[in-house]
Write a structure and sequence with these properties.
By secondary structure, the protein is mainly β. It has a single domain, classed as Nucleic acid-binding proteins (OB fold (Dihydrolipoamide Acetyltransferase, E2P)), CATH 2.40.50. Helix content is 9%, strand content 42%. The chain has one helix and nine strands; from the N terminus they run H-E-E-E-E-E-E-E-E-E. It has a five-stranded mixed β-barrel with strand order 4-5-7-9-8. Strands 3-1-2-6 form a four-stranded mixed beta sheet, with helices on one face. A hairpin with a 4-residue loop joins strand 1 and strand 2. It is globular, with a radius of gyration of 16 Å. The model has no long low-confidence stretch (mean pLDDT 91).
C-alpha cells in the first residue's frame, strides 16, 4: 500500500527552514507567541498564523530517553538517544536525536547536514549536540 502525507503550509515552511539550516516556529501576531511545531492556526486564539520566525540556535533538553530498539522492533547494535528540546520564548519543542553526550538540562544546538546534502526533511537536522560550557541560550 502506498501512502503519502503532505506537510501542509506550516510544515512546508518548517522543512524549507531546515533545508536552509534554520529552525522556524510559527508566530501568532495576536497572542505574541511562537510555537513548535509551527501551525497555521494559533491554539490559544484560533487566529491564522502568517509569520514564521527563526528560533534561537541554543535550546535545552527538557526530557530524554535511550533505546536499543529500532523502528522495526529489531535490536540496534548501538544505543540511540532522543530528546525533547525546548527553546526560550517558544511554546512546544522538537523531538530528535542527541549527537554525543548530554543530559536533561543540557544546553544544546542543532547539528545540520552539509548544505549540499539537505533535502527539506526532518533528517536534514542530524540531531542536537551539547553546547560547550560557558555558553548559554
Amino acid at each position: 500500500m502506498h501512502y503519502e502525507y503532505t506537510a501542509g503550509v506550516a510544515g512546508e515552511r518548517f522543512l524549507r527552514g531546515l533545508k536552509a539550516g534554520k529552525i522556524l516556529a510559527g508566530y501568532c501576531s495576536n497572542c505574541k507567541e511562537a510555537s513548535l511545531p509551527p501551525r497555521i492556526y494559533c491554539v490559544k486564539c484560533f487566529g491564522e498564523i502568517r509569520r514564521f520566525i527563526r528560533v534561537r540556535p541554543i535550546g535545552r533538553i527538557a526530557a530524554m530517553t535511550r533505546t536499543l530498539t529500532g523502528q522495526d522492533g529489531a535490536r540496534l547494535e548501538q544505543q540511540v538517544t532522543f530528546a525533547y528540546v525546548t527553546f526560550d520564548g517558544v511554546a512546544g519543542g522538537i523531538i530528535h536525536r542527541v549527537v554525543g553526550r548530554a543530559r536533561v538540562g543540557s544546553s544544546v544546538r542543532p547539528r545540520f547536514k552539509k548544505r549540499r546534502d539537505r533535502k527539506g526533511s526532518i533528517l536534514d537536522l542530524e540531531g542536537f549536540e551539547r553546547e560547550p560550557r560557558g555558553l548559554t541560550r
